[in-house]
Amino acid sequence: MEIEYLDRGARDAARPPGVRPPDWSHAEVSRLRLVVQCIRAARIPSDVLSLRSLRLRTDRDDPGRVRTELSSDRALTLAFKADSSPITAMLDIAPTRTDSGR
Prior knowledge:
Layout: E1 2-5, H1 8-13, H2 26-41, H3 45-49, E2 57-59, E3 62-69, E4 74-81, E5 88-95
Parallel strand pairs: 1-5
Antiparallel strand pairs: 2-3, 3-4, 4-5
C-alpha cells in the first residue's frame, strides 16, 4: 500500500533514521513509524484497521476517516483513497490542544 503524507512533519518523521520535527517527542515519532510500517505491510485497508495495537477510532467528524493519538498534543488521521490503484493511505497530523499557549 502506498502512503500520501498531507503533513510535511509526518513525512519527515516517518523517514528513519533519526529525523524528528523540532516540536515532536521521541514517543510521537515512534508511534507514527509504527503506523507507517503497518500501512506499508498491508494489502487492503482492513489489514490496518483491524490492528488493535494501533488504537484507531472512527473520526466523529468524518466517518470515512480514523484517528489515533500520537500523544495528548498530536493526533494522526488516516484515510484511504479507495479509487486509487494501488490503494493509498493518506496521513494527516493535527494538534489536539486548543489553548493559545502553544
